[in-house]
Specification:
This protein has 133 residues and is mostly helical. The protein is 59% helix and 3% strand. Keywords: DNA-binding.
Length: 133
């Protein structure tokens, strides 16, 4: 499939796909006319890349991890190492800390909302600066 179809099927812009390729995260072959051609596997690869970016990993770390992830058949990849497991565990622990921090922030906001909602009747606030004049 060409880059436009991969972009449509994965929900990722063509520009991002070209960046992934430049970073070694995604590989393509070239057609005789010079167009990028991707196999069906590329959709799953892009989804994985997006998930790793969303987890806060940077492209260099993703490039190191992708070859070590499970093969298409679901079995462990021969490139997986104990060091990789340690790195992934560190990343998961970092994400767990971020989740805990966000949960605490949400609790503080919930308390503030509850306190503001239970307080004395609020004065009607003007909807525009002109209304205040």
């Amino acid at each position: 499939m060409r880059i436009g179809e991969l972009a449509r099927r994965s929900g990722v812009s063509e520009r991002s796909l070209r960046y992934y390729e430049s970073q070694g995260l995604l590989l393509s072959e070239r057609s005789p006319g010079g167009h990028r051609e991707f196999g069906e596997w590329a959709v799953d690869r892009v989804v994985r890349i997006q998930a790793l970016y969303a987890a806060g990993l940077h492209s260099k770390r993703i490039a190191r991890l992708l070859p070590c992830m499970r093969d298409v058949d679901g079995g462990p990849n021969e490139f997986a190492t104990a060091r990789l497991v340690d790195e992934l565990t560190e990343e998961r622990d970092r994400i767990d800390r971020m989740i805990a921090d966000l949960a605490r922030s949400r609790e503080v906001l919930d308390e503030a909302i509850a306190a503001a909602s239970a307080g004395p009747a609020r004065e009607a606030e003007p909807s525009s600066p002109r209304a205040r004049a």
